[in-house]
Amino acid sequence: MSGGIELRLMTPKDLDAAITLETRCYSPEAAATLSGFQYRLQHYGQFFWSAWSGGELVGITNGIRTSQSSCGDEMKGHQPDAESGGNFCVLTVAVLPGYRRRGIGSLLLRKLILHCEAAGVERMILMCEKHLIRFYEAEGFIWHGLSSSAHGGIEWHEMSRELHTMEHLTE
User: Fold this and answer.
1) What whole-number distance in Å separates Cα of residue 76 and Cα of residue 66?
2) CA dist list (Å): 143 to 24, 156, 167
3) Which residue from 103, 109, 121, 127 could staple onto 156, CB 3.0 to 4.6 Å apart?
4) Which of 167, 151, 166 shows the shortest CA–CA distance to 70?
């Protein structure tokens, strides 16, 4: 726990609260659906993290493993994932408006990075809005440019972060 914030993995009973949070943070056109969250929890539950304050869900992060090198529009619905893929597409980092700028998004993202490294993920990929580029750069992500995606009518920017691998120990 950090500053009264408890980080834990999501559970099926938390999904209604997660969808409520998602719809408060994203436009209806860009927000994930309940079925999308159910799929992510079922297949990638070890990467579906939540932040709680006083019993209230205040932040979430999640995504999917993939063999693809970028997060396209198709990953927002019934995603073409690959449970053994070397990349991890971050699909959600969301914090309730009243809890932003307190480090909760960074805590969630760092927890996700640690779990991706432990799971052997080689690279994390994501799309974000322009105003979030600096946030992700502060966490080691590199900006690659505008995405071809127009999901939810938003101008997205592609970013990635290479993860630590143990290859140097086996050479």
Assistant:
1) 13
2) 26, 11, 25
3) 127
4) 151
Here the CATH number for the domain that contains residue 125 is: 3.40.630.30
- Which residue bears the tokens 């502060």? 138
pLDDT digits (tens, 9 = 90+) for 61-113: 999 999 887 776 555 445 556 677 899 999 999 999 999 999 999 999 999 99
- Residue 35: other Cβ atoms inside 10 A: 10
One-letter amino acid identity for 163?
L
- How far apart CA 61 and CA 94 sit, in angstroms, is 6
**Three-class SS string for 78-101?**
CCCCCCCCCEEEEEEEEECHHHCC
Q: Is 75 within a domain? A: yes
Domain assignment present for 131: yes
